Amino acid sequence: MELDHHSAQNIIMQARNTAPVIHAILFALASLFMLVSEKAILDGPAMLPFAILFFGDLPFSAFAFAVMFTNDKNGWIAWCLWGIVGTVWWYLLGVSIEAWIRRLSAPKH
Questions:
Q1: What is the per-residue DSSP string for 50-101?
Q2: pTM more than 0.85
Q3: C-beta of residue 53 within 8 angstroms of C-beta of residue 27
Q4: Is residue 53 in some structural domain?
Q5: Is there a contact between 85 and 92 (Cβ–Cβ < 8 Å)?
Q6: How many domains are there within the chain?
Q7: Which of 49, 50, 75, 84 has the fewest beta carbons under 10 Å from its own?
Q8: 20/92 Cα distance (integer angstroms)
Q9: What is the residue range of 71's domain?
Q10: Is 98:12 a contact under the CB 8 Å cutoff?
């Protein structure tokens, strides 16, 4: 099955929107698990979504985690900012990828 140009663009547009939605869902799950569990982030049910987010959002996640680990007062602020900035970042990555694909697939004059 071969994709035509229009179908390929639709797939790109879906990925552009899917990545930030997945990011937001992972953050919501990790947040819920952290709220309901008495275990530490890396020892409880939040570990899997947290690990995916941590590696997917490097280097910003390392900074946010350092604040969360060392500062109880600002830990949740760092977590929330990480979630917002990371979700916007994944959206912008999708927009950038779409622009590059358009540029590279445009007819040459």
A1: HHHHHHHTTTHHHHHHHHHHH-HHHHHHHHHHHHHHHHHHHHHHHHHHHHHH
A2: no
A3: yes
A4: yes
A5: no
A6: 1
A7: 84
A8: 9
A9: 20-105
A10: yes
